[in-house]
Amino acid sequence: MNPNEVTSVIQTTKKKRRKRRKRAKESGSQPAKIDTQIPVASSSNEVFRQPRNKRRLSKDLADISKMSSHHSTEEARPNYSFQVDDTDHCETPLQAYRDILDILDRIASNLNKKRSTLRIYDPYYCDGGVKKKLESFGFTSMINRNRDFYDDIDKKVIPEYDVLLTNPPYSGVHIEKLLAFCSEASRRTQKPFLTLLPHFVYTKDYYERALSSTVSSSVFFLVPEVRYAYIPPVWVEAKAGSKALELGKIKTAPFPSMWYCHAPKEIISSNWLVQKFGASGLICPMHHSKLRYAKCSQDIPKSFKGEFDPSKKRSNPKARKRAAKKRREAAMKAGPR
């Protein structure tokens, strides 16, 4: 197709568009769609140029496809000694570990240890990210191995540790098994644990069943300012891994998560928590981590409460204003920490 023919086709197409818009205006109806592909001269065969919005959509789809192929790189997938579910594999963001540095330092101090000698145990191996992130804060005695946690429990080969810190898989019965292990370890050896779990776990039947009454009554919560976003490893297949990956996102946060913590009172007392983070359920805006301490589930902010928590019911506008005013006054009275 020579340039003159291309010009002629373009002019004809424009005339058709004008006539279509004029008829639609006179009749008051929506114009019918016509083929908007415009041929352009090419050095080889005829090539049709798509409208700008369609080209942009094609580019977005291509980027998503590229990202999906990146997340399904089989060569990057570790050889696991246990069954792996792609939907369970998401690395905890660095901010989540930064938020609990005060807690880890407090545990280390009470055990007469430094960051470098505090033995932190994460029994669930995802992609090795937790070890790298905690080492960047100076916790170089981190234990995170590519092993079957439950097999190690059965064989009684759990490594010696000072504190268990983990973000476990959320599917199946992983959370229930983890809580049962933490409860038993706390009962026998007074081991502290910091577990990053979905906001609704405390409303589940297995929560009280897995934890002993002594442990469950002394669990406290550390709630982030905004929900954490998790990063799937590069080998996670997009469609099987998460909806976020399938949509072309590199981070996923299907629901809020928060820290479920427990430690002997001799190591972490309620008074220390209030001094560090502010009163239970209130915001201490001057604290660098911007975590909110909740002594019990009733003090968890409504935005992080589980769907089946009866206290999640929304109060009337006047009551909300009064509650917000009290929180602001309490935070101002508490002052900087």
Strands across the major sheet, in which order? Answer: 3-4-5-7-6-8
Low-confidence segments, given as residue ranges, are: 33-75
Molecular shape:
extended
Tally of strands: 8
What is the CATH C-level name of the largest domain? Alpha Beta
Give the fraction of residues assigned to helices. 40-55%
Could you characterize the architecture of this molecule?
The model is unreliable at 33-75 (pLDDT under 50). By secondary structure, the chain is an alpha/beta fold. It folds into two domains: 3-27 and 34-70, no CATH class; 86-334, Rossmann fold, CATH 3.40.50. The protein has helices spanning 3-27, 52-70, 94-99, 101-110, 129-135, 149-155, 174-189, 205-210, 213-218, 238-241, 243-246, 270-277, 317-334, and strands at 38-40, 47-49, 120-121, 163-166, 193-198, 220-223, 257-262, 292-294. The strands form two sheets. The protein has a six-stranded mixed β-sheet, sandwiched between helices. Strands 1-2 form a two-stranded antiparallel ribbon. It is 40% helix and 9% strand.
